[in-house]
Design goal:
Elements lengths: L1 E2 L2 E2 L13 E5 L6 H9 L21 H4 L2 E4 L11 H9 L8 H7 L15 H13 L5 E5 L7 H16 L3 E5 L3 H7 L2 E6 L2 E6 L12 E5 L17 E3 L5 E5 L2 H15 L7 E3 L3 H9 L9
Parallel strand pairs: 3-6, 3-7, 4-5, 5-6
Antiparallel strand pairs: 1-2, 7-8, 9-11, 9-12, 10-11
Bound molecules: adenosine-5'-triphosphate (ATP).
Length: 296
């Protein structure tokens, strides 16, 4: 996709399987919205091949649109309509809509079904957005940052709603800036940076995460350093606030050596911390060098 001379998305190659929750991550300006809008049929691409539900989104008709649900980043409730009325209105746009009350229940809005859309809290409004995306009973749902601005419990509740869609056999294409969201929900993740895919995999394997070193950190009494076993001594690095750090690809072996030695010495190592690289660590290192950071 080119905007004038700027190539915003280049050579990306993605396959998303039926029934999968696929998360699309990337810094601001990486090209996520551009890609998603091409897939949704809202943006005309400059080149490349795209196939969504067996059709090219650029030429697909209304029957294809019926099979797609979209939750945009921002939306405004229909003025003067209650939650139920709004869903009834949208249901009328589709050939085979879902049952309105069942859809309201699915997103946890039954108690607010009679409330005006404009009276809903931010989190409840987002649930209404999800309900509106579901009312046509689509096969594929695009969710663009579905929990931005939510409090932690509203986020968790929305995750449960999204996870529940998997059980309905829906395919979800999720865009998010939250690593915990991608980790909780996604079967697979792709990271986009400066218009190219820099990594693809599961939350556990993305960017070689499963092979990265584990960090063991602890505070060593100064006098104890000299008695450390020979196998550990060369591995000790200085961490922040006077801590000692071991970066290990065999953490069990090194933890066993360390704890054996500490018990012998009668040392507590009270602040010992063992940390696997988080998805955020991996994401930050994958996107750190990319010029696509920073937006329009
Ligand atoms: P964010 O996370 O901030 O939403 P994004 O990954 O969705 O970012 P895009 O909105 O797809 O990024 O933008 C990708 C690049 O294309 C950016 O450099 C942006 O400035 C540029 N761009 C996007 N839309 C247009 C447009 N209509 N005209 C010109 N350039 C555009």
């Amino acid at each position: 996709m080119r905007y004038g001379s700027h190539e915003a998305v280049k050579g990306i190659d993605l396959d998303v399987s039926h029934g999968e929750i696929f998360a699309f991550l990337g810094p601001n300006g990486a090209g996520k919205t551009t890609t998603v809008e091409i897939l949704e049929g809202f943006r005309r691409r400059s080149g490349g091949d795209v196939c969504v539900l067996d059709e090219d989104p650029a030429s697909a008709g209304s029957a294809w649109r019926d099979r797609i649900g979209v939750v945009l980043q921002d939306s405004a409730p229909e003025p003067g309509l209650s939650v139920r009325e709004c869903l009834e209105l949208y249901a009328g746009y589709y050939r085979t809509p879902r049952d309105v009350d069942e859809t309201i229940e699915l997103v946890g809005l039954t108690a607010r079904a009679g409330a005006m859309g404009t009276e809903l809290s931010g989190g409840q409004r987002r649930r209404l957005d999800v309900a509106l995306a579901l009312i046509g009973d689509p096969d594929l749902i695009f969710l663009d940052e579905p929990t931005t601005g939510f409090d932690p419990s509203a986020r968790r509740a929305t995750w449960q709603v999204i996870a529940g869609l998997r059980h309905l056999g829906k395919t979800i294409f999720l865009t998010t800036h939250f690593m915990d969201e991608a980790e909780f929900l996604a079967d697979r993740i792709a990271v986009l940076a400066a218009g190219s895919i820099v990594a693809e995999g599961t939350a556990k394997t993305l960017g070689g995460r499963d092979h990265l070193a584990t960090t063991i950190s602890f505070t060593l009494p100064r006098a104890a350093k000299a008695t450390l076993p020979k196998g550990l001594r060369p591995l000790i690095e200085s961490g922040t606030n006077g801590t000692s750090v071991i970066r290990s690809e065999s953490p069990l072996v090194h933890l066993q050596m360390l704890s054996h030695w500490a018990l012998e010495q009668g040392l507590e190592l009270a602040d010992i911390d063992v940390r696997r690289p988080s998805l955020e660590d991996v994401y930050l290192s994958l996107t750190a060098q990319q010029p696509g950071k920073g937006k329009r």
